[in-house]
Write a structure and sequence with these properties.
- This is Putative DNA-damage-inducible protein d.
- The chain has 526 residues and is an alpha+beta fold.
- It contains 18 helices and 17 strands.
- The protein folds into three domains: 150 residues, no CATH class; 153 residues, no CATH class; 179 residues, no CATH class.
- The strands form five sheets. Strands 5, 8, 9, 10, 11 and 12 form a six-stranded antiparallel β-sheet that branches.
């Protein structure tokens, strides 16, 4: 096993680790105080209090992770007095370690230990928690088994991201540097551009692409990491946030102008990481389908360039005006977004509503029911199949009416002709469509089917999405007359249309004279 991942029994933090009645790990604040090198508990109470405030600000249940206990201790001559002693979860210990002076040698060891425990033992404790009556030896076996299981799965999941990160070795201005404030980050990969500094020297700005090999579920992320070089952390974090607020919308405009089709408005993620005098004012996830060099590295360069100008007192308002970026966010806190979706119940209802809107007043229900009947009858007869893994999707199915040559295309065409002819029947025979509310096709006064909405519920024969190709699929002047004849006969039979309704075919499709004669010979008698 990788020694970095294995928890050493010699670690001072492992030695003070305890288990409750359900096999869950905890550490006591008084023993942690000594392990972190504090001479008195009074001094340790300062980072302890800050850690509790930080956890509460992050939405953590403080009482659950910092469990206050009152214990009796001896004070000499047999006397005893009560003292407070917190029972701390591993998460609480991490919050505390982040508040301790970063250059204390014990801090790096604590962060490495508790970060490893936080991940290794999430799974390792699971089996133990489910078995209250288990020997300590058996618990150790379970933990070791789960550590090995976690390591194998984690290594497999991380390999893709590690390969992607190594591409930055060939990018000239990025340097591999997995550290913060000179301290090694043992399970991170980091590639950085040159650091910038505030004029007062109190803050540093690292521009980097980073990956935590213990967190493949998070993936690769990039942005600006703030370094608090002087002063207290809260003041430094406040300054980083104010600066980011100043330039955020200009950064958004520059990135969206550079990468057309990408929206960055909601990709800036707030951090939950403010430890060891470092602070991310924001970070951005690199999507799996985005190139780490073309998108990730380029975006980091752009962000650094904007920060550099800002720190040199470049006029932010002028930048905004030049880019057209807004000063205030539009629906920044929006958490629900519209989505263009296909093959859903919503898409089906929207299609029916569109057919209703195309209808004359009082005929909406008639036309919608006729379209629903077409779907029902063609499904029953095997011309369509309702796909069970979608909310509302019908796939065109191969049928004996179509010859083998160009089978898929002809089968798709046949069904689209059925839809066109159904609308032609509504328009020219029943007179139930209101042409003033419809799109008109080819300036012939013929209603155009609602192709976009139809493509959201109807699949091609091979199970694909029609998209815009559905509009150009049928060409009555070029397509074989046999396809049109078959389409009409199927439609007339399934919907039991009047025998004389065949006359609407030419009104709808505008067939060349020769094709129309052939059609009349085949279908003119109903």
């Amino acid at each position: 096993m990788n020694k970095e991942l294995k928890i050493s029994d010699k670690s001072p933090f492992e030695k003070i680790r305890k288990f409750d009645g359900q096999g869950r790990s905890y550490w006591t604040s008084r023993e942690l105080c000594a392990a972190l090198g504090y001479s008195t508990y009074q001094k340790f109470s300062v980072p302890l209090a800050k850690a509790m405030r930080s956890a509460e600000a992050d939405g953590i249940n403080v009482d659950e992770h910092f469990n206050l206990m009152v214990e009796m201790v001896g004070v000499g001559s047999g006397a005893r007095r009560s003292v407070e002693n917190y029972h701390l979860t591993r998460e609480a210990c991490i919050f505390i370690a982040r508040q301790v002076y970063a250059k204390k040698k014990e801090v790096q060891a604590a962060l490495e230990y508790f970060s490893s425990v936080s991940i290794d033992f999430d799974g390792a404790e699971c089996d133990v928690n489910c078995q209250e009556v288990v020997s300590e030896m058996e618990k150790d076996k379970i933990r070791e088994r789960n550590r090995e299981h976690w390591k194998r799965l984690n290594d497999e999941a991380s390999e893709f991201y590690k390969k992607k990160m190594r591409l930055l070795d060939e990018v000239e201005d990025f340097k591999a540097d997995a550290s913060f404030h000179g301290n090694k980050a043992p399970h991170h990969m980091m590639y950085k551009l040159g650091t910038l500094y505030s004029k007062d020297g109190c803050r540093g700005y690292e521009f980097l692409i980073e990956y935590d090999v213990y967190e493949p579920v998070v993936g690769i992320y990039y942005g600006c990491k703030g370094l608090i070089l002087d002063g207290n952390d809260e003041d430094g974090e406040k300054m980083f946030n104010e600066e980011w607020k100043d330039i955020r919308y200009y950064v958004t405009a520059v990135l969206e102008n550079t990468f057309p089709g990408k929206s960055f408005t909601h990709r800036f993620k707030p951090t939950n990481n403010a430890n060891n005098h470092t602070y991310w004012p924001f970070w951005i996830t690199l999507h799996e389908d985005e190139d780490i060099v073309e998108v990730g590295a380029r975006a980091v360069r752009l962000i650094r360039s904007i920060y550099e100008g800002y720190l040199e007192n470049e006029d932010v308002e002028a930048l905004r005006k030049r880019s057209g970026s807004r000063k205030e966010p539009q629906e920044e806190d929006k958490i629900r977004f519209s989505a263009d979706v296909n093959f859903t119940k919503k898409a089906y209802q929207e299609l029916l509503e569109e057919i209703g809107q195309m209808s004359k007043k009082g005929k909406e229900k008639t036309n919608k029911e006729m379209f629903e009947k077409l779907l029902e009858k063609t499904t029953e007869s095997g011309y369509l199949r309702k796909e069970k893994h979608y909310e509302a999707a019908w796939r065109i199915v191969r049928n004996a009416d179509v010859k083998e040559r160009d089978l898929q295309q002809k089968t798709n065409k046949q069904f689209i002709y059925m839809i066109r002819l159904l609308l032609g029947y509504m328009q020219f025979y029943l007179g139930t469509l209101d042409t003033s509310k419809c799109d008109i096709e080819h300036n012939r006064g013929v209603v155009s089917p609602p192709y976009t909405s139809i493509s959201k519920i109807l699949m091609t024969m091979n199970g694909g999405f029609f998209g815009e190709t559905i509009r150009k699929l049928c060409d009555s002047k070029k397509d074989a007359t046999s396809i049109i004849i078959n389409s009409w006969k199927i439609l007339q039979t399934l919907l039991d249309l009047p025998k004389d309704a065949w006359k609407i075919v030419n009104d709808t499709l505008g067939l060349p004279e020769k094709k129309w004669k052939t059609f009349k010979d085949k279908c003119g008698n109903g």
